[in-house]
Amino acid sequence: MALMETKIHVLPEALCNKIAAGEVVERPSSVVKELLENSLDAGASDILIELEAGGKRLIRISDNGCGMNRQDAFLSFERHATSKIRTDADLFALTTLGFRGEALASIASVSRLRLTTSDNDAGLGQQIYAEGGKIKTANEVGFPQGTTIEVRNLFFNLPARKKFLRKEQTELGHAADVVTKQALANPAVSFRLKHNERIMLDLRREKGVRERVAALLGRSLLPDLLTVDKRSNEDLQLTGLISQPQLTRSAASHIYTFINGRYIRDRVVQHAVMDGYRHLLMKGRYPVVVLFIQIDPAQVDINVHPTKHEVRFREQSQVHDFIVESLRQTLRPAGWLEKKSEIPPPGEVENYLPLRQTQAANHDAYCQVGDDSVREATNQYFPQEEASRPNDSNIAATISPLSLPPDQLIYTESSAAHIQYTLPGSESSGFFSRLQILGQYHQSYILCQEGSDLILIDQHAAHERVGFEKLRHAYTAGKIPSQALLFPDVLELDFNSATALSENLQELEQLGFEIEPFGGKSFALKAIPQLLENRNVSGLVVDIALELERIGHTAQLRESIDEVLILMACHSVIRANQALSNLEITSLFQELDRIDFKANCPHGRPVIQRMTLTEIERLFRRQ
Ligand code: ADP
Ligand code: MG
After folding, report:
1. Could you read off the pLDDT of 284-313 as tens digits, one per residue?
2. Distance (Å, rounded) from C-alpha 227 to C-alpha 243?
3. Partners of 203 in the β-ladder
4. Using a 6 Å CB cutoff, which residues line ligand 1?
5. Ligand 1: which atom is nearest the Cα of residue 105?
6. Which pLDDT belongs to residue 566?
7. Rounded mean pLDDT of the chain?
8. Which atom of ligand 1 lies closest to the CA of 37?
9. What is the average per-residue pLDDT within 363-371?
């Protein structure tokens, strides 16, 4: 019988490698990640990473690990060739970062790759050169023990992928990120990162993670970091450093979590970390966290995703609750938690919101203060009853938002989905100034009466709104007035924030900041916007740098300027939980009357709420 013609055929090996490369090799930083993992698995204690053009032209990683002999050197180019596992069972007892045996084959298939390696100290090694995965030459060369892998012209044979690569600085940023994560997990290993012959990171071998954190994220963080060291009965251990709640960031990017030495970005773990800080952070703020989870490898499946960033725990909620409890136990002795403050009930983690949604929700209430530690001064209008203090959210729930006829609603384009209200007669006669002030509630809200309505004003949101309008006005008029600092503040940032800041120094001058590079990842803060006075300005600059990282390049800063002005306004104003005198309230009201949009703070949080007499009477069942 003649062979039937088939539609289906098995793909050639070279094409399979290219397909696999599609999953594993997205950009230069993915190559850096895979090669660093190999060097660490080889037991290296010194690793040099050299890049040219953000890694697009060259990535060279040299280590002093165990190296390979001639046969292994050839085998390492084969797909599914690994020295790290042999059997099914090994997959659930992993002690190495790699195990799939695909990285080198994949990288080789989309680049010009030169491997030089030696497994002995006799000074003799092997060099293999491959183009697009095809071995072109193989020689014996003089070489000390260790391995150097050189990857040139990534995606030279995959133009579609190459098109997606970003500019040099962006790719370098991603690569530095990868190095940062590996370096945090391996303080005993020295890492050097060179870009176009310039040393970008120079990390010596350290005794512990604290020193490594100082070198990578800034020494000034250390006093605010608490040490975590907890062990559960069941083979579960948590170590590392977490920030006290006063040290926060405006993005989750400084939450570094590792499982068995592997950096992961896992939803369950992230959620647990944020839960550990519940009620301690303002909405939209994130801690600085470097946490290492040690778990029985049988309890976690790493083989969920080719890049191994996500994992699956066998006992998901047990791991979640252990992290939450360990963080609470670490924060409690430092005085951050009331004794009876309960650990959130062990919930079904499946039911939790995906992280992205949680973040979006947080953003709305960006400046909301939830820091319970800031309640000090006594309220000057109402005696404060600590014990029976009603829960803020209960009160908020019974108050309906401003009810205005639809023709008084203005939809503005400026910030999507922010509805802004004009208040009756506000423009001409000063709505706020005409309010009858009743007093301050919870040192956070100003209570007023208008006609028979009760008006509540969120003092923080109101101040923020005023600050924002002032800043925006000054910025549009040319430059935000600045004020020189008597003693310049020295800031230390991480690699990516430092890059973002140095790229935007001129723009920042427009915003009233005078910042000078101070060598490495340090900067001297010489002048600050007048409006900020002497508040924690370096914290603000750190936040702005993170925002700049998010925004990307300079051209976009002008478009996203509101975001930066909001950050500045947020730092410039009084927080909630602050007693205000009648005079201060009056002057705040005058300022509110001077600006155009009054009813929403720039984050979309309302400044003012109204409760009618009818609503109040209904509460007391009089209606
Ligand atoms: P995996 O790391 O999953 O095993 P790779 O394709 O990354 O797969 O590497 C294949 C093999 O090549 C590894 O198992 C290891 O034995 C060897 N190898 C790769 N890089 C190095 C290195 N820097 N030093 C020593 N051996 C290496
Ligand atoms: Mg590997």
Report:
1. 889 999 999 999 999 998 877 777 778 899
2. 9
3. 191
4. 34, 38-39, 42, 63, 65-68, 76, 81-84, 98-105, 147
5. 6
6. 85
7. 82
8. 2
9. 31
Q: Where are the domains of the chain?
A: 13-203, 218-332, 355-476+575-619, 480-567
Ligand nearest to the CA of 104: 1
Q: What pTM was computed for the model?
A: 0.77
Q: What is the per-residue pLDDT for 206?
A: 96
Ligand 1 closest atom vs CA 102: 6
Cα 431 to averaged position of ligand 1 atoms, centre (Å): 71
Q: Among all ligands shown, which has an atom nearest to the Cα of 61?
A: 1
Average confidence (pLDDT) over 527-549: 85
The CATH fold assigned to 480-567 is Ribosomal Protein S8; Chain: A, domain 1 (3.30.1370)
Are the C-beta atoms of residues 195 and 201 closer than 8 Å to each other? no
Give CB contacts under 8 A, 24+ apart, made by 432-437.
432/457, 432/588, 432/589, 432/590, 432/592, 432/593, 432/598, 433/586, 433/589, 433/590, 433/593, 435/589, 437/582, 437/585, 437/586
Centre of ligand 2 to C-alpha 499, Å, is: 29
What residues have CB less than 8 Å from 333, skipping those under 6 apart? none
In 71-224, the DSSP E strands lie at 112-118, 124-131, 134-142, 146-152, 190-195, 198-203
State the Cα–Cα distance between residues 72 and 363, nearest whole angstrom: 52
Ligand 1, atom 16, residue with closest C-alpha:
83
Residue nearest to atom 20 of ligand 1 (CA): 38
**Do 295 and 283 form a contact (C-beta atoms < 8 A)?**
no
Quick count: other Cβ atoms within 10 Å of Cβ 601?
29
CB atoms under 10 Å from CB of 238, counted, come to 24
Alpha carbon separation from 459 to 93, 332, 467, 529, 532 (Å, rounded): 56, 30, 12, 22, 17
Indicate which residue's Cα is closest to atom 17 of ligand 1: 76
Q: Is the pLDDT of residue 53 over 70?
A: yes
Domain 355-476+575-619 sits in CATH 3.30.1540.20: yes
CA of 38 to the centre of ligand 1 (A): 5
C-alpha 37 – ligand 2 centre gap (Å):
6
**Gap from CA of 34 to ligand 1 centroid (Å):** 9
Tokens of 545: 């740098």
Rg (C-alpha) for the chain, rounded Å, is: 29
- Atom in ligand 1 nearest the alpha carbon of residue 119: 25
User: What pLDDT shows up at residue 322?
Assistant: 96
Q: Please tell me the class of the 218-332 domain.
A: alpha beta
> Under 8 Å CB-to-CB from 294, ≥6 apart: which residues?
236, 237, 238, 239, 260
Amino acid (1-letter code) at residue 71 = Q
Record: fold of 13-203: Heat Shock Protein 90 (3.30.565)
Q: Which atom of ligand 1 is nearest to 103's Cα?
A: 6
Question: Which of 37, 78, 104 gets mutated to test ligand 1 (max ligand atoms within 8 A of its CB)?
Answer: 104
Report the separation in Å between the CA atom of 84 and the middle of ligand 1, taken as the mean of its atom positions. 8
Q: Which of 412, 322, 435, 428 is nearest to 602 (CA)?
A: 412
- Percent of the chain at pLDDT > 70 equals 82
* DSSP bridge pairs for 255: 289
Write the single-letter amino acid at 593. D
